[in-house]
Design a protein that fits this description.
Oligomer: single chain
Radius of gyration: 19 Å
Number of helices: 12
Strand content: under 5%
Helix content: 55-70%
Shape: globular
Number of domains: 2
Distance between the termini: 51 Å
Length: 279
Amino acid sequence: MTENPEEMASEGPATEEAGSLLSLEEANALVEEHRGWAESIARSVARGWSLDWQSEGLDGAAMEALIFCSRRFDPSLGIPFRGYARRRIHEASTEAARQSKGWVKSTSSSQFERLAKEVSVELFELFPELRSGALPATLDGDGGSDKAVRASIRQLLVGATLVTTRQGLASSTPDELLDTKKVIGFLAFLEVIHQIILWRIYWDGDSMRSIASEWEMDELNVIREHIALIEHLSRAIQKDKSFEPLKIRPGLRARALEMKREKTVGPFTKLYTDQDKHP
């Protein structure tokens, strides 16, 4: 079998964390630019396994791998992004096909694969629509428009950013720590109730349903607030600066006022302050 030059280039030493990684804005741009290419890889793998690439989840797996690769791509290594990401996207799609067919991969996972799997699993939990081949819902309600598709992709990007930010807190890599602190800085200036929602979802692993139940409110209030928060953070990350805190939607205002009266400190504000005290 003839080896693909791009795949061979991507099989070099595991140096994803060396050199200089892309900014979050540049990484997100890579994902939007290469989404169609990643989907074509998923379709190709699905044909080889006689599967439907969307209903069997290969499209979601390809998107997760593409997002993760964008966060670990180091252009200073001299490898084109497609050469770096192709094998990983192909492997993620193939693993989804194996699972769909009931096969189990027996080889041990590298740290990269483990972290990628963590991101993938968590995004599938946060956005269950991916399991059925659909993109996350948006506030504009028009799921078929190009604007809605791009908004859905931004939700996945920000969701992956928050998951990798949590992972990055345990990193000893200066580039990762710098990006992590930047994202924590964005989160620290959100309203307290918004910080708590994101912390509980992405750090504590709580479901939006459990948060709504504890706060004695309709689950849709938390779901819509989460979507609005993700869109707000997407704009902040793209512009690489914090905006004015997002306004609290009516369904959560009573709970937010209660937190204000109790002088609750946002978890990201506390984390950001602690980081400044202990750089």
